[in-house]
Amino acid sequence: MYLISTREMLKNAQRGRYAIPAFNVHNLETIQVVVETAANMASPVILAGTPSTFTYAGLEYIVSICTQAASLNKLPLALHLDHHEELTDICHKVKAGVRSVMIDASHLPFAENIDTVANVVQFCHRYDVSVEAELGRLGGQEDELIVDSKESFYTDPSAAKKYVAQTGIDSLAVAIGSAHGLYHDEPHLDFKRLAEIQRQVDIPLVLHGASGISEEMIRQSISLGICKVNVATDLKIAFADAVKQYLSEHPDANDPRKYITPGKQAMQQVVENKILMCNSAGKI
Ligand code: 13P
Which residues are noted in the entry as Zn(2+) 1-binding (predicted)? Predict the structure, then answer.
């Protein structure tokens, strides 16, 4: 078993009108929970890591653990570079075995965003690596960066058409009202805009910032072309809350195998719910 690109996975989801859940992982335990749960539910799944995750856990460790997880669970797995910005960093990680990349140039002016992304696509497609890019910008906590909601802006559907044609990307991340991290107010998604983007663009669309968004809104997004749903914060909260509770009930606990287990169980519940929400169970 080896790590695969997300191209076919996302095209299958687009044809079948469901979405692939993409979970941000950080270590052995998060990878185990996500992969074992997806395997039990026969769901395709994407494991995502931001640059700071690879710095924290180590590229070689993450690639090796994901490859082993794919093999042990007999599940073709995609390890995806989430919010990467540097071509040299992407090249290095592709050469280490990663086959799915997000190049995030959404902070750059339109023409520079296109040039940057087109360069990455040119490199990645030579290695059969799929590429996602973002047009528009989400607010909230993005890896180590806080993007103020004033700096966020929504995806323009006609610009999206030009962007996809000129970059050659395989999937497009859209900004339609979701944000990374915790929501301070009730989130609202601009479904009219999403429907228009879907009319203009024929590649799979990606929803970032899916934690804290209702199941109903996620399902409606999927019906309008979202084929990949990114989840990070909901997993972190479930894990941390369960570990904190265990430690408060067992103040003398010091064995990680004991206090991490309730965190893994809480995370498993979230992964199951997101797979059901994406309607990806049984789609292997
Ligand atoms: P959340 O942390 O809001 O779930 O966002 C995850 C994400 O979009 C990763 O790219």
Answer: 83, 180, 208
pLDDT at 238 over 90: yes
CA angle 154, 156, 159 (to 5 degrees): 140
Give residue 93's identity as a one-letter amino acid code: K
227: three-class secondary structure by DSSP: strand
Check residues 180 and 231 and name the one with the higher pLDDT.
231
> Ligand 1, closest atom to CA 178?
3
Convert the pLDDT of each residue in 126-167 to its tens digit: 999 999 999 998 877 667 776 666 556 899 999 999 999 999
Domain extents in the chain: 6-233+269-278
Give dist(CA 188, CA 219) in Å, integer. 14
Phi, psi of 140 (to 5 degrees): 100, -170
Domain 6-233+269-278 belongs in CATH node 3.30.428.10: no
Active site residues: 82
Locate the ligand 1 atom nearest the alpha carbon of residue 24 and give its number.
9
The average pLDDT across 115-121 equals: 98
Sheet holding 145-147, edge to edge: 145-147, 139-142, 179-180
Known binding-site residues equal 83, 104, 134, 180-181, 208-211, 230-233
Residue numbers belonging to the annotated binding site for dihydroxyacetone phosphate: 181, 209-211, 230-233
